[in-house]
Design brief:
The protein has 398 residues and is an alpha/beta fold. It is built from 15 helices and 17 strands. Helix 7 crosses helix 14 and helix 8 packs across helix 14. The protein starts with 14 loop residues before the first strand and ends in a 5-residue tail after the last helix. It binds adenosine-5'-diphosphate and magnesium ion (MG).
């Protein structure tokens, strides 16, 4: 169902409550004050903020940051983000240490058209994660129009991502939300073939629904990361001390069989006896000796995967191929990043998403050669799986 976008609404003079994803990593500066360590998510929200500013709306920004557990926590204040946003926008960004209530409502009533305020972390209130009706109404009381641009949080039914939309007349998608949905539904619903999906990362259990869905649409589903070992063990291979989810062996086996050859597993591995930069790494084929664990895909697997990617027209990637945080187990992930970038140069439409995947991609230096880098991990997987995202479903129909 198509949803309202910024093109459908007139924001002039309106109080526009924009849910952004400013859940950014913070650092401590030399004077002890918090600073933004990585502003990718803040930059991703700029097109929506600028649109409302340029069209003389009042911009009221809300976001969560971290997991404060429903109570105020100065370490997880958004105050530092307000300063950083002010620098990026080259505008004054006010900050409110209250998220809802009379004081905030008064401050907003006094705002000029075309000005910006950021409100404190929504998760300081227990009503946020509970999707509480009162908290949702209190948020709605701040706004004439609600805009959701927090794609990364759209798979959660919280007050600021879903509940609030019920109590405003107009609830629309922001620009980032629009571009994420466009790229991801293209991959999900109308991919050009051959389509290659690459899935890796820590846990197969997080991604079963997505694996099942992609194993139906993709021509090849290349598996890497720790999740390979659950599949390999399910198929009777020796995996040594590699990470395995014993309670998913049956599911992995039936997924593999249903996929009828489209799921491809690594056939060689970089192994070590310890998850450590000083551990002695070697490459083994097939079975992993019982005292060792698989920590990256091996060179023969990289060649096989590169070959599959070389003529792909659509590529979707979530999950690193190994423990890329440690240099000697990063090679598989870096080489797959390059293969995806090369295929994109040759005309494939490529999408990469997931917190660790995007940081691995950024380390590879190939981010700019990918068609769409998603700001969503769980949200991207949920959308690709074909399930409803509450943060999108709650918006007004176009
Ligand atoms: P994303 O955040 O992109 O969705 P995940 O969180 O699912 O990715 O997985 C990333 C994590 O998986 C990384 O921290 C990485 O070290 C870990 N990982 C990858 N391969 C292995 C492996 N073979 N053994 C243990 N951990 C692994
Ligand atoms: Mg992760």
């Amino acid at each position: 169902m198509p949803k309202l976008t910024l093109d459908d609404i007139d924001v002039r003079g309106q109080r526009v409550l924009i849910r952004v994803d400013f859940n950014v990593p913070l650092d401590t500066s030399e004077d002890g004050s918090p600073t933004v360590a990585d502003d990718t998510r803040i930059r991703a929200a700029l097109p929506t903020i600028r649109h409302v500013l340029d069209n003389k709306g009042k911009v009221i920004l809300i976001s969560h940051l971290g997991r404060p557990g429903g109570q105020p926590n100065p370490d997880l204040s958004l105050a530092a983000v307000a300063d950083h946003l002010g620098t990026l926008l080259d505008e004054r960004v006010r900050f409110s240490s209250n998220t809802v209530g009379d004081t905030v409502e008064e401050v907003i009533a006094g705002m000029n058209d075309g000005s910006v305020i950021l409100l404190e972390n929504t998760r300081f209130d227990p009503g946020e994660k509970a999707n509480d009706e009162e908290f949702s109404k209190a948020l709605a009381a701040l706004a004439d129009i609600y805009v959701n641009d927090a794609f990364g949080a759209a798979h959660r039914a919280h007050a600021s991502t879903a509940g609030v939309a019920k109590y405003v007349d107009t609830a629309a998608m922001g620009r980032l939300m629009e571009s994420e949905i466009e790229a991801l539904t293209r991959v999900r619903d109308t991919p050009d073939h051959p389509m290659v999906a690459i899935l890796g990362g820590a846990k197969v259990s997080d991604k079963l629904g997505t694996i099942r869905a992609l194993s139906k649409t993709a021509d090849h589903l290349l598996i890497g990361g720790a999740m390979s070992y659950t599949f390999l063990k399910a198929l009777g291979r020796e995996v040594g001390r590699s990470r395995v989810e014993e309670d998913r062996l049956d599911t992995a086996e039936s997924l593999f069989k249903e996929a009828d050859g489209r799921i491809v597993l690594p056939n060689d591995h970089v192994v070590a006896d310890d998850l450590d930069e000083d551990a002695e790494a070697s490459v083994v084929e097939d079975n992993i000796p019982e005292d060792l664990m698989g920590l990256d895909i091996g060179p023969a697997t990289v060649d096989t995967y590169r070959e599959a990617l070389s003529d792909a027209k659509t590529i979707v990637w979530n999950g690193p191929m190994g423990v890329f945080e440690i240099e000697q187990f990063a090679k598989g992930t870096m080489e797959i990043a390059e293969a995806v970038a090369d295929a994109t140069d040759d005309g494939a439409f490529s999408v990469v998403g997931g917190g660790d995947s995007v940081s691995a991609l950024s380390r590879s230096g190939f981010t700019d050669r990918i068609s769409h880098v998603s700001t969503g991990g769980g949200a991207m997987l949920t959308l690709l799986e074909g399930a409803e995202l509450p943060g999108i479903a709650a918006l007004s129909d176009a």
